[in-house]
Amino acid sequence: MLSTSMSGTAGRETATALEWLPVPLLEWYHENARVLPWRSDPTPYHVWVSEIMLQQTRVAAVLGYYERFLEALPTVAELAACPEERLMKLWQGLGYYSRARNLQKAARQIVERHGGEFPTDYDNIRALAGVGDYTAGAIASIALGQAVPAVDGNVLRVVSRLTNDHRDVTRPETKAAVTEAIRKVLPVHAAGEFNQALMDLGATVCLPNGVPLCERCPAQRFCAAHREGHEMELPVKAPKPSRRVEERTVWLIFHERKVALRRRPKQGLLAGLWEYPNEPAGGGFERPISLTTEEVAAPPVPPIPGPVSFAAAGKHIFTHIEWRMKAYTVKAEGEELPPGWVWADKRELGERYPVPSAFQAFSHIVEENL
Ligand code: SF4
User: Fold this and answer.
1) How far is it, in rounded angstroms, from Cα 317 to Cα 321?
2) Residue 279's beta-bridge partner residues?
């Protein structure tokens, strides 16, 4: 039971906090719902695409991508048939590219298993590639009106505060207990609204970083963490393992207003995307990005012959790795490239080859040279 491992509140009080939630939360939502494009026509396809884009990404960053994606690929069938490079281009800059690949894989599953019709049964939705409990719950409740919870990090935060629950929210058993507790109070005829209201409350009032805006919260009068003064201690999360830092040398190689690109391997980080050739700079690095005296005197040897000069430094943070990069421009003496590398002009770079935002720090240098 959710109440057995609470601290600071009796079990009955905890159960009551969630039981009291639906009416004031829905009233608050009717006044304060965020206006979001996928809410104006919440078909399963629209909700699905928006939820996948929103994983690990802020709403403001998703808005433009969502509109463009749906304009280019308005149906499951068109997504299933989209050429890979076009799909990657549509996703370029959003990051976590495996999400786009899974979207397409799932679209193909829908075509193969369900004749192109988005499944309406929770288990069939949950069985699609890249769809977890939260996304399946969001689609089933918001687009199909089914009474299923949709519990993500936002909801875990709100519920752990409401119920003054000090268990580690990164543990599956905590998430399972919260999901079951929500299932019990979910209003059967307004499950989609309730789930969206919880998401909005978490995003705009019971904030993830900084002090929650309890004075604006419809749950303030029965929120156990607020009453006990524990808002800032919750949710409890086990510390994440620290990121591995990799220092890399990036080569911006130009020849006749074209830049050299190579394709990343089909598996692993940024799989299948195009990149400026780069390589580990060697060593374990924890120092700030700056050129050493040796590098100034003798820059690293480029993979293509030609004059080399330091261009810029940049870093990119992935989930488990941080790249600290030093980029060098090379004015290639000839146009011969290693197998698998290509020359891309300005148009091809813009329309054909998806280069991940990990290299964004160098885009202005590339643009100036094309
Ligand atoms: Fe969060 Fe404060 Fe509302 Fe409690 S009262 S749910 S801590 S915003």
Assistant:
1) 6
2) 249
Q: Which ligand 1 atom is at minimum distance from the Cα of 224? A: 4
Instruction: Tell me how far the alpha carbon of residue 299 lies from the centroid of ligand 1, in angstroms.
Output: 55
- Separation between Cα atoms, residue 226 and residue 243, nearest integer Å: 33
Peptide bond into 235 cis (omega under 30): yes
39 touches 33 (CB < 8 A): yes
Residue reference for tokens 């709100």: 158
Report angle CA 348, 353, 354 to the nearest 5 degrees.
135
The DSSP secondary-structure symbol of 10 reads -
Pocket, ligand 1, Cβ cutoff 6 A:
158, 161-162, 205-206, 212-214, 217, 219-220, 223, 225-226, 231
Q: What pTM, to 2 d.p., does this model score? A: 0.79
User: Which residues, including other chains, have CB under 8 Å from residue 225's CB and lie 6 or more apart?
Assistant: 8, 160, 161, 162, 163, 164, 231, 233, 234
* Closest of 264, 345, 254, 369 to residue 302, by C-alpha: 254
DSSP conformation class of 99: H
Instruction: Write the pLDDT tens digit of every residue in 30-89.
Output: 999 999 999 999 999 999 999 999 998 999 999 999 999 999 999 999 999 999 989 999
Residue showing tokens 């929210």: 169
